[in-house]
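Encode chain A's predicted structure.
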Amino acid sequence: MPKINLQPELQQTPHGVGVVTQSPVRRGESLKLWQAGDWKVWNPKTFEGLLWCNKWCIYAWDRFYGPRNPNRMSLAWYVNHSSRPNMKSSYRQNGDWKFVATRNIRSGEELTVNYSELDYYGK
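Encoded structure for chain A:
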C-alpha cells in the first residue's frame, strides 16, 4: 500500500494528548507518523532517568529505545493505547516504526494501538 500524507496533529483526547487524523484513512493504509532517525538507546543512570524511560521509551531487545531529542519528537511517540485500536504497529531494531490502519478511520479520530500487541521484534 502507498503511504499517505494525513497531516495528523497533536490534540487533547480522552487519553490525554494524542495523535488525531485530519483526513479519513482506509483499512490497510500505512500512516506516516515516524521520522527516520528519531530514536537512540537510552541507558538511565538515575531513578529519574528510569522513570522518564518508562514513560517515553520502548523496552525491547534488552534496551530502552527512546526519542533522540525529547524536545522534538515524531508524532509516533504520542500514539496512545486502546483496547480497541484502529492501527497495528511494528518496530524494528534498525529504528523503522510502521503503522497500518486495521479499519477505516474517520477524519478527526484519534489514532491508537494496543500496547500489549506492539511488534517489537519485527515479525
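Residues 47-56 form the longest helix (10 residues).
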